[in-house]
Design brief:
The complex is a heterodimer of chains A (237) and B (475).
Chain A (H helix, E strand, L loop, with lengths): L3 H5 L25 H6 L9 E7 L11 H5 L6 E5 L4 E2 L1 H6 L7 E4 L4 H14 L2 E6 L6 H13 L3 E7 L11 E8 L2 E8 L9 E4 L17 E4 L13
Parallel strand pairs in A: 1-6, 1-7, 2-4, 2-5, 5-6
Antiparallel strand pairs in A: 7-8, 8-9
Helix pairs in contact in A: 5-6
Chain B lengths: L2 E5 L3 H7 L8 E5 L5 E5 L1 H5 L8 H7 L4 E4 L2 H14 L7 E4 L3 E5 L4 H4 L2 H12 L7 E5 L2 H10 L30 H9 L5 H6 L2 H6 L3 H11 L16 E10 L2 H21 L2 E12 L5 E11 L2 H13 L7 E8 L3 E2 L13 H17 L4 E6 L9 E4 L18 E8 L6 E12 L7 E10 L4 E7 L7 E5 L2
Classes of the chains: A alpha/beta (237), B alpha+beta (475).
Chain lengths: 237, 475
C-alpha cells in the first residue's frame, strides 16, 4: 500500500494524481486574475488549446475577462476576431490598452467561412490569440479546431451560447460566464484536472463596478457640439 | 570552356502536353511541306501514330485522335522561358534552335559540386517546369549538342584526346550543322557510316565535291575552329505562357499549369536575387476577352508556394466565362531582395512572414472588405467615433478619452421594449452633435444593468424621453 507522502516524493510529471491539476510542459498565458490562474492547469490560459466561453448574452464581461491577455499582444502577431456578433468598439478598446494596429477583424458570410478563417488563423502561428463566434458548429468542426489549436501555440477562444453547455465538447477548457453585480461569475465546466468546487467570482476593473440598486451618479457629462449663433457684424469689418 | 547542351525532344508536343498531367490522344501536325504529324503523345504512339505519318493515315489508326497545329511561336517562347530558367545555373546561355539550349558551365561546377551533380540537378529541376529534356556535355557546344541528341546523358571529360569519343556518332548528326541531305547521301554512298569514317577521308577530296560544310562542322565540333555564339539576354520582366492540352474550366488542371509558371518565375527571380510584389495571371479563352487575375503578395516575394496558394483561392472564387485555352504570367517590376541567411537560433523573421501570409490568405478568399482593422476617430457621436482601416494601420498617437464606452457597439441602436428589465446605474451623459452633416444626434446615454446582470449602454433621444434604445454592451 503506497503512502501518500511516498507518492508526493516522486519526481513531478511522472505520476498524475487525480486530485491535482494537470501539469503541462509549457506554462499557460497569465489571465491577469490570480484567482482564475490558480484554478487553471498551467497557471493561465493554456497555449495551443481550444477554450470555450459560454455566455447567455453579450455584456456579462466576456471581453473584459480577456483584456489582460489582449493588452500584451506583441508587435508581430495578430489578434484575430472572427465573425463577432457586434462591432468591437475601437474607442473603448483603445482606452483599455489593446493595441488596435494588431487587431484583425474578419467578417464572414457563412459558418463554413468562419470555420475556415479560424483554422487558417490558428495554424498560421502568427496570432497572439484568436476569438471566434461561430453561429453553429458541430462536433467534427470542434474537433478540427481543437486539432489545429493543439498543433499551434495559440489559444483559441470560441464563444458559444449558454445552452451549448449541455452538449459534450472536445475543448480543453470550458468556462461558463454569467454576470454578477460588478463582477463576472466563472463556472469551470471542464478542465484538465479535478472538477472545481464552486464558481469563481472575478472582479473586473474595466467594468463599471456598481452594486445593483445603488445608483451612483457619474459626473454629469455634456457633449455639446453646437456653436452659439455668431453675432451679426457689419460688412467690411 | 565546358558546355552542356539541353535538348527537348518532341518540343512541338511538349509545349502542349506540359500543362496537364496526361495529354491523352494528341498529335501535333504541320501543314508545310505537306500535311503530316510531327509529334504524338505516348498514348497516340501506342496506337500506332508515328511522326512523319500523314494526317489521314494517323486518323485511320486512331479515329479519336486530337489534332493540334504546330505552334512555332509557342516553341520559341518556351525556349526563351527555359533560357531564363537556366539562368540560375550559369549566366552564359545561348539559344540553340530549334529545340535546345547550350550552357557554358565551367564557372559553375564548383558551386554545384561537380559536373555530374550539376547535370543531375538540372534534369531534376527541369521536371518542375513539366518539361522533359536530354543532356550532353563536351568541351564544344556542337559536340555537346550531338551527344545530347544521340547519346543522352553522356558527359565527355575535357581530357587530352576527347575528340576521339565523337568518332562513333552517326552521320545523321551532321544534318544539324547545315550539311545538306545530298551530301549525307554521298558520304553514305562512299561507305562512311560514322564521323570517324568521315574524318579519315581526304579533306581536299571532300572540298572538291562541295562538301566543305562537312569539314567545317567537324572542325567546329572538335574545337579546331572557334564556334561563335550569341549569349542570351533575358528580358527585364518575366513572361511565360502555358497552353492547356484541352480547353478546361476545372480548377485542378488550371492550378497545375499555373504552378509551372510560378516555378519558372521563382527561378528567374532567384537567379537575379530579386523579388516581385505582384504578378498578373491572364487566362486566355477560346473566344471572348481574357480574364485577368492580379495576385498581390503583401511584400516582395519569390515564393512559388505562396503564389500557388493565392492563385488557388482566387481561381476557386472565380466564375469563368468560358473554358481556358492558355495561361500567361507576367511578373511585376522586380525589386532587389537580399536572400535570407540561416540563423542558428531560429528565424526571427518567421513570425513576421507568417503574419503577412495569413493576411494575404484571408484577403484572397474573403475579400478586402471582410478583413479590416478598426481605429478610433475624433467624433462625439458613438457611431462615428470609429472607422474601418486597412489592417496594421497605426492609430493616431493621442486618442482623446471620451466618457465610459462599451466594448461592443451595435450596428444600429435597438429599440427597447421592456424598460422595466433595466436598472439605470449611471448617467446621463448628453451627446448632442452633428447638426452640420445631417446625422444630427441629441441623446442622453446611461449605463444600465439588465436584471440578469449584463451591462448595457442605453439612451433616449432628448425630445422623446419615453423611447429607449440599446446602443452597446459592456462585454
Amino acid at each position: 500500500m503506497a503512502q501518500p507522502h511516498a507518492l508526493a516524493a516522486l519526481p513531478p510529471g511522472l505520476v498524475w494524481q487525480a486530485n491535482c491539476l494537470a501539469r503541462s510542459a509549457v506554462p499557460g498565458l497569465p489571465t491577469g486574475f490570480a484567482a482564475l490562474d490558480a484554478q487553471l492547469p498551467g497557471g493561465g490560459w493554456p497555449r495551443g488549446a481550444l477554450i470555450e466561453l459560454l455566455t447567455a448574452r453579450p455584456g456579462v464581461g466576456e471581453l473584459s475577462l480577456l483584456l489582460p491577455l489582449l493588452r500584451c499582444t506583441p508587435a508581430d502577431r495578430w489578434l484575430v476576431w472572427v465573425a463577432p456578433p457586434h462591432l468591437p468598439y475601437a474607442p473603448a478598446l483603445a482606452a483599455a490598452g489593446v493595441p488596435l494596429e494588431r487587431l484583425l477583424l474578419v467578417r464572414t458570410a457563412s459558418d463554413a467561412e468562419t470555420l475556415w478563417a479560424t483554422r487558417q488563423a490558428t495554424t498560421s502561428g502568427a496570432c497572439h490569440a484568436i476569438l471566434a463566434w461561430p453561429k453553429r458548429i458541430d462536433h467534427s468542426g470542434l474537433r478540427r479546431l481543437q486539432l489545429a489549436a493543439e498543433d499551434s501555440a495559440t489559444p483559441l477562444f470560441l464563444f458559444r451560447p449558454a445552452d451549448a453547455a449541455r452538449q459534450p465538447s472536445v475543448a480543453a477548457l470550458r468556462l461558463q460566464l454569467s454576470a454578477q453585480a460588478g463582477a463576472v461569475r466563472v463556472h469551470i465546466l471542464k478542465r484538465r484536472g479535478p472538477a472545481p468546487a464552486a464558481p469563481l467570482e472575478i472582479v473586473l476593473p474595466q467594468r463599471p463596478a456598481w452594486r445593483a440598486g445603488a445608483q451612483t451618479a457619474l459626473p454629469r457629462l455634456h457633449v455639446l457640439a453646437r456653436p452659439a449663433p455668431a453675432r451679426s457684424a457689419f460688412a467690411g469689418f | 570552356m565546358y558546355w552542356l547542351a539541353l535538348r527537348l525532344p518532341d518540343l512541338p508536343l511538349q509545349v502542349f502536353s506540359r500543362g496537364s498531367a496526361d495529354p491523352g490522344l494528341l498529335a501535333i501536325t504541320e501543314a508545310h511541306p505537306r500535311q503530316q504529324v510531327v509529334a504524338a503523345s505516348p498514348a497516340a504512339r501506342a496506337r500506332g501514330v508515328r511522326a512523319g505519318d500523314s494526317v489521314a493515315s494517323a486518323l485511320a489508326v486512331a479515329p479519336d485522335l486530337q489534332l493540334r497545329p504546330r505552334a512555332l511561336e509557342l516553341e520559341a517562347a518556351t525556349l526563351t522561358e527555359l533560357a531564363q530558367w537556366a539562368g540560375r545555373f550559369t549566366p552564359q546561355i545561348s539559344l540553340d534552335p530549334p529545340d535546345g539550349l547550350v550552357l557554358e558551365v565551367s564557372t559553375s561546377l564548383r558551386l554545384f559540386g561537380g559536373l555530374q551533380a550539376l547535370a543531375d540537378t538540372l534534369v531534376d529541376e527541369l521536371r518542375t517546369l513539366s518539361l522533359h529534356g536530354q543532356l550532353g556535355g563536351a568541351p564544344t557546344p556542337m559536340a555537346a549538342r550531338w551527344l545530347a541528341a544521340c547519346r543522352p546523358g553522356t558527359l565527355i571529360p575535357a581530357d587530352h584526346g576527347w575528340q576521339d569519343c565523337l568518332s562513333a556518332l552517326p552521320l545523321a548528326v551532321l544534318a544539324d550543322a547545315g550539311v545538306g541531305q545530298d551530301i549525307l547521301m554521298l558520304l553514305h554512298g562512299i561507305g562512311a557510316r560514322n564521323l570517324g569514317d568521315v574524318l579519315r577521308l581526304p579533306r581536299d577530296g571532300l572540298a572538291r565535291r562541295q562538301a566543305a560544310a562537312v569539314s567545317a562542322a567537324l572542325a567546329r565540333a572538335r574545337g579546331d575552329t572557334p564556334d561563335l555564339r550569341d549569349w542570351f539576354v533575358a528580358p527585364a520582366r518575366y513572361t511565360a505562357t502555358v497552353a492547356m492540352a484541352a480547353p478546361t474550366d476545372q480548377l485542378a488542371p488550371l492550378l497545375f499549369a499555373a504552378r509551372r509558371l510560378f516555378a519558372g518565375q521563382a527561378a528567374w527571380l532567384a537567379a537575379r536575387q530579386m523579388a516581385a510584389e505582384y504578378c498578373r495571371l491572364t487566362l486566355v479563352h477560346e473566344s471572348g476577352p481574357t480574364t485577368v487575375l492580379d495576385l498581390y503578395c503583401g511584400a516582395p516575394s519569390r515564393d512559388e508556394a505562396r503564389l500557388g496558394l493565392l492563385a488557388r483561392e482566387r481561381l476557386a472564387a472565380l466564375a469563368l466565362p468560358a473554358p481556358v485555352e492558355a495561361l500567361q504570367l507576367t511578373s511585376g517590376a522586380p525589386v532587389a531582395l537580399a536572400p535570407k541567411s540561416g540563423d542558428l537560433f531560429g528565424d526571427p523573421d518567421a513570425t513576421q512572414h507568417n503574419a503577412g501570409l495569413l493576411l494575404e490568405r484571408l484577403i484572397a478568399r474573403l475579400g478586402t472588405d471582410a478583413v479590416i482593422g478598426v481605429q478610433p476617430c475624433a467624433d462625439h457621436r458613438p457611431e462615428r467615433a470609429w472607422r474601418p482601416v486597412r489592417p496594421a494601420t497605426r492609430p493616431p498617437a493621442h486618442a482623446s478619452a471620451p466618457g465610459l464606452r462599451p466594448l461592443w457597439l451595435l450596428a444600429e441602436p435597438q429599440a427597447l421594449r421592456y424598460r422595466a428589465a433595466l436598472t439605470l446605474l449611471a448617467g446621463p451623459e448628453r451627446i448632442e452633435s452633428g447638426w452640420w452633416d445631417g446625422a444630427d444626434v441629441r441623446r442622453d446615454y446611461y449605463v444600465a444593468q439588465h436584471k440578469d446582470g449584463a451591462l448595457c449602454w442605453v439612451f433616449h433621444p432628448l425630445d422623446k424621453p419615453d423611447e429607449w434604445y440599446v446602443h452597446g454592451y459592456f462585454g
